[in-house]
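Whiteboard transcription, Tuesday session. T.W. wrote the structure tokens on the left side:
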């Protein structure tokens, strides 16, 4: 005899709806609890998950019913995730957490995901789009891409889409992205309070693709210029590739002597700390993104982005747009200095 757990109950009810066994009114919660041999509380939680996913609705004195059209057919339940990256999305310390949250939310709502990987030129960041094709899907989520030409291709697919993670400098692109302005300002204020006056910055300072790629740098500029003029020798432009952190700090140290550092990408910190150790330099280093401490050198402080919240919000926004036939509304999630 099967011992049903809550996720199994949710999936079985979904299967019955998809197969037309339940098309209108459901049995009562008590009847379902008896059938699945679970307590009322467990069954109620399972039903609540499907209500939250807008597959079922509860009406007072009328019970629980299936919302018409809320279970997509197999051809319409696919979400295409388009990602630009030189490493695996699944193991990437930044994008991996966002991806995991997206997949979990899509799965809960009955959607499947397919990954479409793109590569970019390591120097310019321009995408290789010559042979790029998209698959039929109900919607699309774009990760790690800022190129307008790609967005136009996605828009022409005729399905809802949303960009998650990095900021996009176009108001007409629906995005669930991070705002580092306040967090980086607070980080600079903290360093000044510690007596630091030569605060270096390692991160992207310009882009051939989208000026918004430099939003962390612009936040650093605004924060430092409240105290003093910018010293160009303390700024190193680098793309967000893990292996470039080491060479970036070497170039900076060969021409300047920072007394502290803001690193725009946490996954570059191992290389940065490695060079500082080799040269016997100790100084405060504040990373951005707030990645898991088990994969990074110890930093006392960071500007943490809500990665999981971004993935969940992007998936929910897209699902809502698909089901309600509305546009995705942009959200900017604040990264906080901690």
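and on the right, the sequence the group agreed on:
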């Amino acid at each position: 005899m099967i011992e049903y757990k809550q996720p199994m109950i949710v999936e079985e009810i979904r299967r019955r709806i998809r197969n037309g066994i339940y098309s209108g009114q459901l049995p009562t919660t008590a009847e379902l609890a008896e059938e699945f041999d679970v307590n009322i509380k467990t069954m109620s939680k399972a039903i609540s998950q499907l209500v939250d996913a807008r597959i079922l609705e509860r009406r007072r004195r009328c019970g629980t019913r299936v919302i018409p059209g809320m279970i997509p057919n197999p051809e319409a339940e696919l979400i295409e995730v388009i990602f630009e990256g030189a490493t695996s999305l699944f193991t990437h310390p930044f994008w991996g957490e966002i991806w995991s949250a997206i997949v979990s939310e899509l799965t809960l709502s009955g959607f499947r995901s397919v990954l479409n990987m793109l590569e970019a030129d390591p120097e310019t960041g321009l995408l290789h789009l010559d042979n790029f094709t998209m698959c039929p899907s109900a919607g699309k989520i774009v990760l790690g891409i800022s190129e307008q030409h790609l967005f136009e291709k996605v828009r022409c697919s005729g399905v809802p889409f949303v960009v998650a993670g990095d900021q996009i400098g176009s108001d007409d692109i629906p995005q669930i992205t991070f705002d580092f302005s306040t967090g980086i300002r607070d980080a600079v204020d903290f360093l000044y309070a510690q007596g630091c006056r030569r605060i270096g910055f390692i991160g992207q300072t310009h882009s051939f693709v989208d000026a918004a790629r430099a939003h962390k740098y612009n936040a650093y500029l605004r924060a430092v210029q409240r105290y003093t003029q910018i010293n160009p020798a303390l700024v190193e432009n680098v793309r967000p590739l893990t292996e470039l952190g080491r060479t970036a700090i070497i170039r900076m140290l060969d021409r300047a002597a920072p007394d502290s550092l803001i690193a725009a990408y946490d996954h570059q910190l191992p290389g940065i700390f490695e060079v500082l150790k080799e040269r016997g330099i100790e100084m405060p280093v504040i990373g951005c993104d707030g990645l898991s401490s088990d994969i990074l050198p110890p930093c006392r402080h960071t500007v943490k982005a809500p990665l999981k919240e971004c993935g969940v919000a992007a998936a929910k926004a897209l699902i809502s747009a698909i089901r309600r036939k509305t546009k995705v509304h942009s959200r900017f999630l604040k990264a906080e200095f901690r």
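Someone added at the bottom: The mean pLDDT is 88.
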